[in-house]
Structures are given as structure tokens and as C-alpha cells.
Design brief:
2 helices, 78% helix, 58 residues, single chain, mainly alpha
Length: 58
């Protein structure tokens, strides 16, 4: 009984870790997107010309 429970809990832990990693990567992607949008359409880029315009998509 203990072995079965241990295996099931290990699978759940693996799934949980995978979900957390996925959510974290999505959050990082969204944050980068928001940051790029802010840098492009922000008030700071409006004042001076866009000197660094590089499409570095990762």
C-alpha cells in the first residue's frame, strides 16, 4: 500500500512541478512582452527617436 501511494504521490509531484514550470515560463513571457510594449509605446521612446530597434525574439 505504501509503495502505491508513494508512486502516485511522486507522479502528482512531477505533474505539479511541470505545471509550476509551465506557469512560470508563461509569466516570464508575458512580463517580457509587457516590458517590450512599454519600451516601444512608453513615454520615454516618444521623446527621443527609437535608436535601438531590434526584433530579438526568443
Amino acid at each position: 500500500m505504501n509503495l502505491t501511494f508513494s508512486t502516485a504521490s511522486r507522479k502528482t509531484w512531477k505533474l505539479l512541478k511541470a505545471t509550476v514550470v509551465m506557469i512560470a515560463s508563461v509569466v516570464v513571457w508575458v512580463l517580457r512582452f509587457v516590458l517590450e510594449v512599454v519600451l516601444i509605446f512608453g513615454p520615454s521612446s516618444r521623446g527621443r527617436g527609437s535608436s535601438s530597434s531590434g526584433g530579438d525574439d526568443g
